[in-house]
């Protein structure tokens, strides 16, 4: 069984290579391309190994094969129709386009497709705008289809979506509206509850899928809603649509057709795709809505503005892409910049920026993050901690909740709710990580203050921070049996990595409040853990998973010590791990600990920021090899097999997909200091 599994993977890999030889991949062929990735509910991807069959393969929601998304592009050149993207069941008489190039940056995924005598570029663009909250909060993404200059031909471009975007295909409704030249379709699931998800795919069942466009320069626009075969055949036959809107059917689509005329010039048309939910998040019983609604409360106005904003958003994206490329290259090299570029949209795509739905008060702005692909918690503290090297965000909502009557523990909360989007409070039966989360909130607060020079957060929540510091002071060096950030390992007592987190957090707290007693305690604990071998082997060559107990562990919790120059752990600790980790590398990377067959990229990246030389090279280059090996088709999984295990080959992803925890990949880049984004 095992041998056959390995052989099957090898054959699959060679097949992928053979059909992909003619395609130019820049910078590499990733496991999955982000297409429209803007929130946990607008998250469309395309499997990297399937690029050769772009014309006939569906996009997917982040959850994969169980959630195909109907989103198609066809082009008609001199009366012959070519399927460019997503046409799973082609109409008779149509032909597939030929993909010649595929590229990704931190904000764009672009495919070049030849259709007869003309070439088209499909540019899937999800803006990342760290300081423009209006732009970042808009729940839409762009698709621009560009006709390259060439010989003169008659050209029309068509695109459609269907109710797969609503999470429920059994019963939906659709509508069409206009705003000036903008035409907007909305598709809404019927009979579903607010804040409900599809249990299998985790798609939102409330709200509406949105598809919109407007005429390009020199083009004319038509639209139609109805049965798939009827709408597409109308375009194939005539190059235009009738403008009619039939009643919704389960095989129905909402389509647009752009007639570019007979031209030899370059020409482009842009579509906006999205998912809107007026009541986006349930925060302690109060409905929250998208930040953008303070300015554009109506969906038609919001998507019209989004299309208006394309040029400015695209200009910003060029500068942002350059920043990510330069940051990665100067921090380590092009392999590292490839990793950062693929990680960025995934991180931001796990987050929503909201305000109260009743007041639309932007002074009450909050951000909520979904623990995608694991247990679906909302605002999990350790998930936020795993993102923080890419941005230092103040955890206001956690402090506000912990100050309420709904929470009374002396340590920090694990999450604000068991199921996104319901931030209705931590369940008594839910996970708790007393040392982990207390340390995380202190470090996150210190990170925010250090980067922003804003002391208000630490001042406003000083009593809570002091409570967590005292908890760590009393319980952190010898943690009771409890979960840590890597909860897959189960609850363990005296976890070295938790002791390291406590020591580092106490040192950070001492810096935060200018109290040398906490700084000294953190440094004393670090000295006991490393120098006195409490958490190491007798020779002091490696950290152990538990005090005095094998196996060794990939310790990442002293990253904040290195990042902020806390000087808790001695340099010899970092030198020793730099020497040790290369000795335990498996076939495809360094595992999380000596008993496991899998590694985790977010913590490999954090450790890469604490080591040097060969160890750093191995950690970063193994991550690059993992995302470029052609064995995977899931959105960047942060867990993968580093050696063969139960039929899985080294370098295959394991379990997770599309998680926002990839912010940790920026750990090494963060050592160079903040990039001040305008």
TrEMBL record:
Pfam families: DUF4964, DUF5127, GtaA_6_Hairpin. Residues 1-22 form the signal peptide. Residues 19-87 form the DUF4964 domain. InterPro entries: DUF4964, Glutaminase_GtaA, GtaA_central, GtaA_N. It comes from the Eukaryota. Residues 107-326 form the Glutaminase A N-terminal domain. The keyword Signal applies. Residues 333-668 form the Glutaminase A central domain. Keywords: Signal. Coiled coil: none annotated. This is Glutaminase. It comes from Penicillium chermesinum.
